[in-house]
Structure prediction request, 253 residues.
Amino acid sequence: MNRQHYSYTHYASKDVAEGFDNLRFSGPIGRHLLAEQETLLMTAFAPLGTGAAGHPLSGCSVVDVGTGTGRAAIGLARAGATVVGVDASSEMLDVARERAAAAGVSATFDVGDAHALPFPAGHFDGAVSLRVLMHTPDWSRCVGELCRVARRRVVVDFPSASSLAAVESVVRHVRRAAGHKVEAYRVMSERSVTAAFKANGYLVVHIHRQFVMPIAFHKAVGSLGFTRGLERVLGATGLLLLAGSPVTMVAER
Prediction:
C-alpha cells in the first residue's frame, strides 16, 4: 500500500492527533455527532452482548479499525465490550491511550493497517470502521478485511455520493491538486458498499442517514436547535432518504 497517500501522512503528526477531537467533536454539533454515533454503535452491537452486570456489550469483542483517538473504542469498552483499536498512526494511538486512561476504561490500541489487519479470520464478534473508507486508498479491500476478522456484525460509515458532500469532495480534490494540504476524501454509493458486503458474505440489515445539509454547514451555524429543526423539515420532504449523509451501514453474516 502507498504509505505516501494522504490518509497515512496527514495523521502521522502529533499536532493533528492532539487537535483532532477539538476539530471533530467540539461545540454543540460535534457533541451531537458523538452522542448519535455512540447510540448507533450501542444499537448495532447490542445483540452480540450478554448484558451482564448492567453492561449491554458484556461478552462481546469488537475491533475498531481506524480508531484514531479512540472515541468509538472507548464508548464500546465503557459499555462492557472487549475492544481492540487499530490505526496506522502511532500519534493518534498515543492520544487514544491517554483518553482511555482518563476515562478509566480498558481497551487495547495497536498499530495496524485497515488493508491487512493482523488478526485471524473470525477473531472478533464485530468490527467497526468510522470515517475511514472515505479516505483509504482501497476501500473495498478494507471492507473485505473487516468482514474477514468479524464473525457476526460490521459497522461502517461514509459520505453519500448522492449528497451535498459530493460537491465538497470535488472542491477538496481541486484544492489538493493545486497544492493545498487537505483531506481529499471520496464519496460512495450505498449500492457499491452493499455489493462489497455481499461479496464477502454479509447482508446489510440497517442503514442510517444522518443529515441533508453538510456537517460543515451545521457546525458553522453552531445551533443544535436550528440543526434539529431544519433537518426535521428537510427529512419530512423525503430529502433525507434521497441525499442523507453520512450513511452508516450495519451488516450481518
The first strand starts at residue 61 and ends at 65. Residues 6-252 form a domain with the Rossmann fold fold (CATH 3.40.50.150). Residues 27-45 form the longest helix (19 residues).
